[in-house]
Every structure is written in C-alpha cells, then in structure tokens.
Amino acid sequence: QVQLVESGGGLVQPGGSLRLTCAASGFTFSNYAMSWYRQDPGKERELVASISNTGGSTNYADSMKGRFTISRDKAKKTVYLQMNSLKPEDTAVYYCYARVYFYNYWGQGTQVTVSS
Questions:
Q1: What separation in angstroms does the CA of 104 have from each of 6, 88, 96?
Q2: In angstroms, rounded to a whole number, what is the distance separating the alpha carbons of residues 61 and 65?
Q3: Going residue by residue through the chain (116 aa), what tens digit of pLDDT does each one get?
Q4: Spatial separation of the C-alpha atoms in residues 32 and 12, rounded to whole Å
Q5: Cα–Cα distance between 112 and 91 in angstroms, integer?
Q6: Residue 78 burial (C-beta neighbours within 10 Å; 0-12, 13-18, 19+)
Q7: Are 79 and 36 in contact (CB under 8 A)?
C-alpha cells in the first residue's frame, strides 16, 4: 500500500533552517509528482511546493520562493524540503502528498514551529 512518512520537523528560531524528509513506498516513485503542503490550525491546507516525477520541474507558492527548495532522490524514494530563512508564519504541520492511481495520499504530517 502507498505510504508517505515525513520526518525532520521541530522547533527552530526565526531565520533558521530545517530539512524535511518524506519517505515513499508502495508505488513506483519515479512515475509520480510529489508535493509538500502545510496547514496551520484554523486555516486551510496550502501548497508549499511540488516537483515533477523526474525532478526536472518544480513549483513553489509565492511566499516560499527563494527560501524553500524541494528535491527528490529516486534511489532512496525520498522527497526533501529544505527550508531556509524561516519565519514565525511558517509554523504549521507539513504534509507530504502524492496522487497515485487517481487517489490522493497524505503522510501523517510533521510539526514545524518557528519561534524565539
């Protein structure tokens, strides 16, 4: 079965960095685009970044451009989100997402808290 397992969240000071990891299994990883979303309590889940199946194309929400970088490792079946220059408003639960065989799959989420 499809599984997405995130890790790497935590508490970081403003201006700091974190790298999130999403380990994928249960499907042919190299065939599917992958995305990161985030959700703050009381707000809608929003797209953070997406990467094509080959890794050749990426897309970012405007507020993350220049600060966040999405990447993928085919051999490790893993997607990464490098987050730099973090701000308090980046505080949220971050989710890994894939649409596989016309179904939507989400990881369990990893909490990122940006606070001094």
A1: 16, 29, 11
A2: 6
A3: 999 999 999 999 999 999 999 999 999 999 999 999 999 988 999 999 999 999 999 999 999 999 999 999 999 999 999 999 999 999 999 999 999 989 999 999 999 999 99
A4: 31
A5: 5
A6: middle
A7: yes
